[in-house]
Amino acid sequence: MSLGERQQWILKSIVDTYVSTAEPVGSRAIAQQSDSPISSATIRNEMAELEARGLLVQPHTSAGRIPTDLGYREYVDNLMTPAELPEAEKQEIRHELSERVYEFNDLLKRATSLLSVATGYASVSLTPSEQFSYVKQLKFLSIEAERVLVIVVLSAGLVRDRLIRISELISSEQLQLIAGAIEESLQGIPIQEITLVTVESALEGIALPDAILNQLLYEAYISIKQADHLDVYMDGVQRLLVQPEFREATEVHRVYNALHNDGLITGYLTKAQGQGPDRPFMIRIGQEIKLNGLEACSLVTTTYELGDRLCGRIGIIGPKRMEYEKVIPRISFIRESVKEYYDKKSENFE
Amino acid sequence: MSLGERQQWILKSIVDTYVSTAEPVGSRAIAQQSDSPISSATIRNEMAELEARGLLVQPHTSAGRIPTDLGYREYVDNLMTPAELPEAEKQEIRHELSERVYEFNDLLKRATSLLSVATGYASVSLTPSEQFSYVKQLKFLSIEAERVLVIVVLSAGLVRDRLIRISELISSEQLQLIAGAIEESLQGIPIQEITLVTVESALEGIALPDAILNQLLYEAYISIKQADHLDVYMDGVQRLLVQPEFREATEVHRVYNALHNDGLITGYLTKAQGQGPDRPFMIRIGQEIKLNGLEACSLVTTTYELGDRLCGRIGIIGPKRMEYEKVIPRISFIRESVKEYYDKKSENFE
DNA sequence: TTTAGCACTCGGGTTTGGCGAGTGCTAACT
DNA sequence: AGTTAGCACTCGCCAAACCCGAGTGCTAAA
């Protein structure tokens, strides 16, 4: 590979121009750019070269060029220089971020929404989780006769709960006893490895009818499994859909289906979770995303960390023709702001 | 008003045909219908009459007629005869409804999804609530040092909770004491009427630093207010969007924005909640829905009841050109199935 | 090696004309 | 009086023809 300096400059110009106009860009447009030292003819030659190398394509003869996935890749890896955000915008985000936020998921939801506004594309995030979580606490809380709240506290401090009904009256003490026994038997076992049998082994020798015991076991098991699940927040999809690449209703449908196909995005982002923190941004362009329907999109996400165990993912989905230089610093800043707020809340609520 | 029998028959035929073809229907199409006793010329005369009465329109000269909102209204009120669903489909729904359902909201979500599949349009539902709910229980549960789970039980049995952090260590007993005091002071007060002041009055004379007391009060207050909030589930929007009325991308956007404008649908359905149980179905056609962007849609919803206090809403959003005769019995059946499952679970969890 | 000039290509927009579905009106029929 | 056949008319849709202009690749000169 290794492009000449002039070719780099031309490629960058083409990408920048195409990003802002969404129209194939011709040699003249580049040549007329204020700081261009070279003529359109020369640019044409270089463009032909860039096309031969697979970085550009012509949608048809007599049209300008547009970048290929590879062209964007080159741009993203070597050519762009993300700009720092202006202080005013930082202030704005910091201010908006804390409005009407009552718990962490609110904060994340809000951050996701802000990210969409700040970038103008669709945003997604994954609720935090830890890689190998286990059950730290399990409680049965008697709410009324025959109704019990099952509370699961995971190792990293996540709390989930679930309301169940049981068929018999049972005292708080007994409930506590059972919960304690289950809790103890699960100490240190990663949730993925817990099975119904694991849980069952806990209750040897507790003096209660089998029926009720089995029900509680089952409910505890379900609650634990549910506790580990991830939510995905998505916002501003309409901002993505108004992009000119989706002028066709069928294109809109393809993207819509991909995004709202339950669990598809979640699964994808979860797999991406593995990315090391050395390369904080994951940028997938067009075909590189393997999800059916998102071929015309790019996905830029990053991992956010809370405390020293929890992490999640946040980022945006835009057209391939995306303002990468603007998007990156905004995701960065929001990632940091979320962490900051989380830490602040942890040590001292307002 | 009062249409002649023949006019009724013609109007019904036109609506039925238009619903299935999405094309303006002409006099000949009606005349050729197998059971038509009359000629196209007569039908033309009647159609002109129906148009004069505002029940039909011609999109342009030399096109057939399509129903106006008023035409659909007449159809819905007087002409259609909803069919009972086949037993096979009932079985199917009953079977699907209970899969992987772990608590009521799962059931509702599942029901909503099934409704969309069964009708082929988008479906919406509102989580259950009661008209004048009050706080029945309030609990603070100490999870770890400095982390407390606030649990609110509403009068109808709804349970909501929220994890908070507090800045100081405080014993379980003290937490219970505070929660008890707040709980008592709120007995019988409708949630809408609770203010921060109401809550504050509870803690006269508890011996703890003001700072921590105030924080707990505030958190309790927020939790209570949050407990009352409604969720909306929506599913199968893509089924709506592929309808031919939304072939234009801009139309897709209008509908999309209306549906995903946070709180818009919720608010609308909540207001509709008031509908008496005498008229179980609310059918809003086109302009009758006052929401910007849904002019081409119809909204058919019904109230579901759980126990004797809780109720919510479930229904579908389709194009005006909707198979009302098929939609109604499906909503009915799902409403009943949800109630049935809820009751069954209440008395005896499998 | 760069650039000016030029012939060529081809997509997009506009115009034109024919086709056909559907209508309203009139006159005949029951 | 109500119904029906016949017919002229309207108008949206579609395809063909057409032009325009943007952009190219090539060639030859600087």
How would you portray this structure in words?
Two copies of one chain form a homodimer. The first copy, chain A, has 350 residues and is of the alpha+beta class. Chain A has three domains: 5-79, Winged helix-like DNA-binding domain superfamily/Winged helix DNA-binding domain (Arc Repressor Mutant, subunit A); 87-130 and 230-347, Beta-Lactamase; 135-227. Helix content of chain A is 46%, strand content 19%. Chain A is built from 13 helices and ten strands. The first copy, chain A, has helices at residues 5-21, 27-31, 40-52, 69-79, 87-97, 104-119, 172-185, 196-200, 210-227, 237-241, 249-260, 264-272, 324-347; strands spanning 56-57, 66-67, 122-129, 135-144, 147-154, 159-165, 232-235, 281-285, 297-306, 310-319. In chain A, the strands form three sheets. In chain A, strands 7-3-10-9-8 form a five-stranded antiparallel beta sheet, sandwiched between helices. In chain A, strand 4 and strand 5 (147-154) form a beta hairpin. The A-B interface holds A 102-104, 137, 139, 141, 143-144, 147, 149, 151, 153, 157, 159, 161-167, 215, 222, 226, 237-238, 241-242, 246-249, 251-253, 256-257, 260, 345-346, 348-349 and B 102-104, 137, 139, 141, 143-144, 147, 149, 151, 153, 157, 159, 161-167, 215, 222, 226, 237-238, 241-242, 246-249, 251-253, 256-257, 260, 345-346, 348-349. Chain A binds a DNA duplex (30 and 30 nucleotides) through helix 3.
